[in-house]
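May I ask for a sample protein chain and its fold as tokens?
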Amino acid sequence: MTTAPLARTGHRRSEVGPVELFFDLVYVFAIIQISHLLIEHLSWTGAAQTVIVFAAVWWGWNYTAWAMNWLDPTRTPVQLLSGVLMLSALGTAIAIPTAFADGAWLFVGCYLFMGILRPVFMMIAYRGQQLAANYRMLLLWTLMAGVLWAAGAAFDDEWRLLLWLIALVVDYAAPLAHYRIPGIGAAPMHTWDTDAEHLAERNRLVFIIALGESVLLMGGSIVEHGHLTGSLALSALVGFASLFVLWWNYFALAGPETSGGDASTGALRSAYAYAHAFMVLGAILVAVSIELRLTHDHLTPASILVTTAGPLVYLIGNVLFLKSRFGSLARSRFIAMGVLGLITVGALLSAHHLPVMVLSLCVLAVTATLAVLTARRQ
């Protein structure tokens, strides 16, 4: 079988090209937009909207990262593709604050444009090869979900929320179903020749972007305050420690030296397409919680839930990652989740009397202990 003219080849296949790093820049803005969406709509409905918007943004990034797993980033057509996808991702990010209002069509239009352009480009670049057939099935699933995305944009409020949720279920179920459509075909995971190290590096980089967004939110809150008081400095210190501990925990678990394990496409799909979605969302929630604790002098049920939900969602991703790549379930993660659950209940019961700093320190103690244990076991 001949090699596609735009394919990655040779010993440098795993390298992340400059155009991939450039593409990721738009997701700094997208993640900030997602954070502000939750901050400005701190309710159950706002949380549901935030999760749906994040899931769509993540899936757009995820499928682009996977496409670049096979494309040579030094080739001009690939760079032009990345530029067009980046512009579309920017449109999606711009529409995030109004995705459930008058920005729905911009959000959906840009998301679906990316979802259609990628497989069409891959079908042309790899015509006559297995990967082209695989992307044909992926395109069909994208179009099926696209009908639901478009229908959701045409409706308002609860119907939009419901239809977009179903559309996401179709999008996320596609790889699990091996893109199978009865009577047409399928694209089983073993037919996707993936490079584990390239995907690992791409996901490490996007996780750093999520952490960087925390720094931007934290720094912005301090600057907006006007002057640095003792209490604000202490809150910022604890917030930074929470951020550093999250970084430490992640790279002790998923750093370059631990990138071995099961490298089958099915395992990589679970570890990166799905597990990292939880970990990146967890990092975003941590950023939002730091912002809330810097700008509020007292706890509310919403701020408590966001503060503990960040590490909890992140740890769910940890568990899925470890199970996918190494076939293990770390007991320490489950213990940490249990302790965080107890902290949540205790904080909710004493929200009117519990200082913000006490909750912050309790959550930090759990995540810091876990980071130390993870680092020592590597």
